[in-house]
Automatic annotation (TrEMBL):
It is found in: Nucleus. The gene is DUSP4. PROSITE patterns: TYR_PHOSPHATASE_1, TYR_PHOSPHATASE_2, TYR_PHOSPHATASE_DUAL. Keywords: Hydrolase, Nucleus, Protein phosphatase. GO terms for molecular function: MAP kinase serine/threonine phosphatase activity; MAP kinase tyrosine/serine/threonine phosphatase activity; protein tyrosine phosphatase activity; protein tyrosine/threonine phosphatase activity. This is Dual specificity phosphatase 4. The lineage of its organism: Eukaryota, Metazoa, Chordata, Craniata, Vertebrata. GO terms for cellular component: cytoplasm; nucleoplasm. Residues 27-168 form the Tyrosine-protein phosphatase domain.
Length: 205
């Protein structure tokens, strides 16, 4: 008997090599000098990880294995890619982990199965929180680097809620600050012919 469309889609999602968007093409993409986004395929390629200087992995799934636990530092966020999953409850823990790796002068790969929804959501939350930018701006920035990102509808809703929290905190911080240094350093700047680039020294925030 023939497989249903849903079964075929699930099969493709479980196998990065067969994914219609070819999630394994190239290597993980650099979001910031210490933050990379990729798929389970990338997380299984020690040659890629070592070439990029990856020292830690943030596994945003409940079923992707940690292949090299004796070689890299790992943290797991056991979230499913569905509309019932509460990924926002993990945002701060994920952000703290990424900052911990950064502060140790390391580099972290954030991945899920396909590198499209769950791991992209975490990277978006990180940019929104640390750079104090809106979801739309963070999304365009990440999409310029990994064009196939597509957080599910529920995750986008959770990111929008997170945006309101982040911007409320940002406004309070700027109101108490005598200058606009935080705002300017956290800015994601668009250049007409160069795509998206970060404002000056954003990772020093």
């Amino acid at each position: 008997s023939s497989s249903t469309g849903a079964e075929l889609l699930q099969c493709k999602l479980q196998s990065p090599r067969n994914h219609p968007f070819r999630t394994d093409v190239g290597g993980p993409v650099e979001i910031l000098p210490f933050l990379y986004l990729g798929s389970a395929y990338h997380a299984a390629r020690r040659d890629m990880l070592d070439t990029l200087g990856i020292t830690a992995l943030l596994n945003v799934s409940s079923d992707c294995p940690n292949h090299f636990e004796g070689h890299y530092q790992y943290k797991c966020i056991p979230v499913e890619d569905n509309h019932k999953a509460d990924i926002s409850s993990w945002f701060m823990e994920a952000i703290e982990y990424i900052d911990l790796v950064k502060d140790c002068h390391g580099r972290v790969l954030v991945h899920c199965q396909a590198g499209i929804s769950r791991s992209a959501t975490i990277c978006l939350a990180y940019l929104m929180m640390k750079k104090r930018v809106k979801l739309e701006e963070a999304f365009e920035f990440v999409k310029q680097r990994r064009s196939i990102i597509s957080p599910n509808f529920s995750f986008m809703g959770q990111l929008l809620q997170f945006e309101s929290q982040v911007l409320a905190t940002s406004c309070a911080t700027e109101a108490a600050s005598p200058s606009g240094t935080l705002r300017e350093r956290g800015k994601l700047c668009r250049h007409s012919s160069l795509g998206w680039s970060l404002g000056s020294e954003p990772w020093e925030l």
